[in-house]
Every structure is written in C-alpha cells, then in structure tokens.
Amino acid sequence: MADNSDVTRQICERFGNDKGRLMDILLSVQAESGCIASGALDDIAKSLSMNRVEVESAATFYAFFSREPRGRFVIRLCNDIIDQIKGMDRIAAAFRTELGIDFGQTTADGLFSLEYTPCIGMCDQAPALLINHKVVTRVSTDMVHEIVQTLRATKSIEQLKLTLGDGNNSHPLVRSMVVNNLREPGSVVFAPTTPGVALQRALSEQPVELIKIVKASRLRGRGGAGFPTGMKWEFTRGAVGDRKFVVCNADEGEPGTFKDRVILTEAAGLMFEGMTIAGYAIGASEGIVYLRGEYTYLLQFLEEILSKRRAAGLLGRDILGKSGFKFDIRIQLGAGAYVCGEETALLSSCEGKAGDPKTRPPFPAQKGYLGMPTVINNVETYCAVARIIENGPGWFTSMGTQGSAGTKVFSVSGDCSSPGVYELPFGITVNDLLARVGATETQAVQVGGASGRMIGPAEFGRKLCYDDLATGGSVMVFGAQRDVLAIAHAFMEFFVEESCGYCTPCRVGTSLLCERLGRFLGGNADLADIDYLEKTGKSVKTASRCGLGQTAANPVLSTIQSFRQEYERRVKTNGSVFLSSFDPIKAVAAAAGMAGHGSEYFGTQKGGV
Amino acid sequence: MGAKVVFTIDGKDVEGEQGQTILQAAALSGIYIPHLCAMKGLTPWGSCRVCTVLVNGRPQAACTMPITDGMVVENETAELKDLRSSLVEMLFVEGNHYCMFCEKSGNCELQAMGYRLGMLSPRHRYMFPNRKVDASHPDVMLDFNRCILCARCIRASQELDGKHVFQFIQRGARKRIGVNAVNGAGGTNLKVIDKAAESCPVGCIIKKRVGFAIPVGQRKYDQKPIGSDIESRQTVTK
After folding, report:
1. Does the predicted TM-score (pTM) go above 0.80?
2. Which domain holds residue A453?
3. Does a structural domain hold residue A507?
4. Chain A contacts of B179, Cβ < 8 Å?
C-alpha cells in the first residue's frame, strides 16, 4: 500500500498544488482515506504552501469531511422534517438493529458508518438516504435489510439492486433510482429546446443590448431573494477587474427544495447555455457551477454535457464562430454545508476556504470570486435567461404577474398525493397549488423552506410571487395530524447545525431560540417565553450578518404569528410561583446518581441516571 | 486623502473621508458606537454585531459599512441599545465568564461593555460550555472559556505580525479558534511580544506572570467607562 503521505501529495499535484482547489483536494483525500487525518493536514499544507490551520479550517467546516476514519460505506439518513413524517425513525431503527451501532458510530469491521444529514433534495421520495454518493429513495425497512446484506456480502455499492428512475436518471452516467416527479412542466424551464439556439441569437447582439433584453424581461433571481437579474449583470459588466466570473448556485440546500435536482437532470444544457450568455454579456470567460455534495451522483453526467458542448463549439474558444469570445465552465463540488447556498459563502467555498460569508459591501458584482467582479445566479435563473433570449422579453412578461414575470418551478412535498416539481406561472394562489398537488385537510404550508414562513389556512388565498409570498421554490404541506411547533423546532435544530458561527446573533441566537422553543414541546414553558422568542427572534433577524441568520428566526417568528394559539395552549399553568422551566428532578439527577438514591423531596427520574 | 463625505448620526452632521467606515468616521468625530470585534489597525470584520446601527432605516454593522454622502445613521435609539445589550448577553452566556476570578477584569472590553450597556443579569440561558485551556506556550495562555470569537487575534497575527498563528476551525456553535500546530499554541511561532498576544478584548489570550501587575481597581475600565476616550475627543460635531 502506498504511503498515505504519497497519496495526499499526488492528490495535491493532480490539482496543480493550487490552494484555490483545496475543496477538491479535501474531497479526494476524504474519498481515498476515509478521513482527513492530522497527518494529511500537514501534508496538504506543505504541498500547497499553506498553514496547517488554514487547511484545518476548511477541513473541519464541512459535514462530509471527517477527522476520524469513517466506514467504507457511509450511510447518511436524511433527517429533514418531511423525511421525519414519512417514517425516518423506522428506517433509523432498522439500521441500528441491522448494524448494531448508533448514529455517529462506525461498525467494528470498518464497513459501515451511520449518520444523519439534513435535506438531500429528495423530499418528494422520502424517506431517503445517501450511501457514499449513491442516493436511495423511498426506503423501507425491508430495503434496509437487503442493503446491509448486499454490502456486507459484496462490499460493492454497484451490487445494490435498485430500480432505475425515469428520464436521465437512468442515463449510463447517472444510473440512479431517483425519479423526477415532474408533474407539470411549464413553458420556460421544462419546454423542449435545441442547444445553441439561444446562444446563437445572443451572440448576434451586442453585450449591452443583451443586458437590456434581460432587464426588459423583468427577470428576478430564482434562488429566493429576487434581485433583478439584468441589473446584477449591468453592475458586474460595469465593474473593474482583470477577470470576471459567472457562477451558478446549484447548492440547493433549502429544506424541501429539489427543483434544481430535476433541472440539472433534464435541462442542464439550458443552464449551461444561460451561463455562457451571461459570460458574453458581462465580459467573462470563466464559469463555475457550485454543485452541492449531495448531488455528486450527477457529476459525471454533467461533465459529459459540458464535453459535448465543447465539442459542438458551444464552449471553449471562438464560440459558435464568434471570434474572440471564449468561455468555459468547471464544476465545483460542495461538501455538506447549507450556508454555502448563501452567495458569498459559496464564493468562499469555491476559493477553497471554509464557507463563511464575506463582508458586504462590496457585493460580488464588484468583488466576488477571487476578488473579481462576479455574477452569481441560481440554476433556474440561467435557464430562464436562455429562454428569454430565444423568445424575447415580451414572451416572458406575458406570464406571471407585474412584479414577478415568468414561471416558477416549485418543489412540493409533505402531506399531499402528488409531491414533485411543478412549473407554474407566478401568482398562483396557495389554494390553487394545494388542489393541484392533491392536498386535503391542510393545516399549514411552509413556504420557502426552513428560512421561509409557515402559514395557516387563513392565508391560503395569498399568491406565490415576490410581492406576496416569496419562495425559492420550496413548498411543504402539513396535514391536520402534524404538530406545527415540532416542525418549527426541527427547523431551528437545522439552523443550529448549519449556522457558520461567524456572527454572534446567528451562532448563539439560534441555539437560544431552539432551546426556548423546546420548552413548549416539553411542557415547561411560561407565557413570558413567547415574548422572549419574539424579542430574541427579532434580534437575530436584525443583527445577523448574512441571509442565513436574517431568516433563521423565521420558524419561530412565523409560527408565533400564524399559530400563536399552539404556543399559548402549551404554556404550563400549574399556578406555581416557581420558574416553570426549572425541572428539579433533572437538576438533582447527577447528585442522585452519585448518592445512589433519589432525592427525598423530588424522587428520582424514571429510569435513573 | 479621500473625498469629503458628509452624513448624519442621530441627527448630528458628521464629516468623514471616502473609504472610511461609519465606525471610523464616527470615532474621529467623537461619537462612540459600541463595538467589540473592530480594532484600530485591523481589517473590519463585522462578526460581533454590537455596532449594529440603522442606515437609512436598515440595520448594518457600522464597522464594515462605508460612509456615503447624505447617509442617515441612527445609533443611540432605545431599540438599538436593547439589541446591543442582547448581543453582549449572548456572548456572556455562550462562554464561561467569571469576572471575579478573571485576571482580565477591569481591562476586559466585554465586561466594560456589559457595564456601559447597563447589563445586570443576562436574559438568556447560560450555556456553561465545556471548553479547553491551552497552557502549552511558555509565555502565553489561552483560556477558551472566555473567547468571544471576535477574530482579532486571527487578524492581528496575519496583518500586524506577518504570521498565521490563529484561524477559525469548525462551524456553528462549535466554531472556535484553532492554532497553527498539532499540540497547542506552544507549537506555533507565537511570541509574547506579538501584536496578536495583545489583541484579545477578553481574558482568552493572557500573558503569563503579569496578570496582576496592575491591581484591580486601577485598571483601564475601572477608571472610565469603555468609549469615553472617543467621547472625550474634541474633534468636530456641528
């Protein structure tokens, strides 16, 4: 066996000993060695002429990297709220039984590690999990048994007998059991197109004219924030820099969102075409797609589409014969960090660093990737751009509403009969959408994922668009049987885990909110705790540094707004003058354990210590 | 010199130069905006958020926000004071801060900020984290119980000392300061005379054997509240 140091050195060499490619290097070392050990940090630092602690900073930030050796098969069970209501606990129990280990542990034979992971973009086919990079969906307890048996016997993921999904999911380079669940293809993103048509048209225009067309289309960013795309491009074009970059945010990590998965599977060419158009418009020759680590199963397939586009003259030099216009795209994989969906954190990650957001201003349009002017848009936005250039801005603005032109691709999951992807004109009401997805007796709808807001039936008449209920695409439906506070608590746990920890309100505030909300679920909350949640939630919203923190209190704030009675109902009303949140039995448990008997006054907690 | 920029803080005209942040321009005009992670001579960082002000009605960190002509800044509002207090209280409950046993007491900016903002007991629940002490360096001790993750040591080491002793590691609630060695600060090239060793606003980075050279009661913030040096400046305010 080659010395570990040699392997690490070779990996670094493969990426030109370029510290900007540290993410790829760490991903490779993790894949090769099953961990990034202390020695590897030194080896990488040496090869890249970096400080050890800089390497450690990136290596300890992302969930997919580990310092301790992981099993040959890392099973990551998705624990988002949809998977929880679709039977995640049963699957977890089955794995515990089959493997004899708990989550966070590795089997003695070094074959299996068991972990939880936040939303992997499969809410429409939950419960789901990853085995290394292989996605397994609609998991049953029988499947758990079969998976473990097969992997034990064959030691090969390829031996798993999984049915293949529809469309490109069964492409030889994908071979995944994921299904598209594309319920309603619309006329923008999922309409049939011919590669190169939009690009050809774009190249016949002056770049400045192109930006005018995008502005005239009133296209706004599809990631959720809704910034006017044309304006963003104009700023970037006008900004000073030796190089400029076009970045595509394919780090779809918002719980309940999976529409980019389907776009990447069925319309990636359109996305690449939109990026190329953006490159021409702003004067960039380099593009990066930041693909979330959970979608690694699509990587080879996407690389092949890029190769084909290069061969067809749609990427590379003198694109479509346009002398002097060169543009190419590389794919940067993420490694399990929701915050990297925040655009400046994404750029930090592309630079090979920990995914901490950058200080704004300056904005990416002025100083983005490597400090150069950078346009960064969502997968869906680039698709829309290509179609706008192809069909004209008037065609686009004829769909949707005044403030929200065009269509939106929604990811719908939860308590409904037809979860999946729906491309619909902006402005559709929640009620209309619920009818389409087969949702009945709906208690609550979470619009915009964990960072969005939860609404009750009183607001189902509202419209899904930027001016009313804005969403990056996630729509989670919850039936009458669900506990809305438990859902809000699950979202808060998610934010505690996914905060980058850079700024005080988000790093500390999310934990405080999560704990205080938990008191309502545990039955020991005071009425004053509602005020605390509102006040502290507002502080987190006001003072946080980036979009993650600014929206991290939404699960609490929006449920207090829409479901206040659920909070009031659970306030402890024992008439006691003592602090309700104080649990005397728990407080003396450790002492009782040492003494070997319970407290005379309070007794012992059931089950002992 | 940059071009002249005129803006207002709480209704008062303030003059600054293009390229300055709100915090810098305010300080030069004798207006104190409470802050912890910002330190003169270091790149603005924007992590503690204690300097949050309203700029044309929108919250911004004064330490990173550049000034522009006609900008309307609100600083001393009741809401902002309460927000700052809440943030400082978060920093208190997040770590283990026992002022009465801490040799930094009286020179500690966090403690001084608590006093200045009128903090009595924190509204937040104490977290009592289990954190480590790194005493491996011969002349400097790191007591992470008191770290507030302001990153001043990270920046000072890089920008003033030309080294790279410190860096954030981990993320979220587990985020902490890592050192550039396997077995603690003793393995790094940190020197007690480094600016990084002096940059800590709290009692996390402590020089050994000099802790009580100045008795409690005669220390910096025992004399005057934090911010008074700025407020006593005679420079412009019209």
Report:
1. yes
2. 407-482
3. yes
4. 53
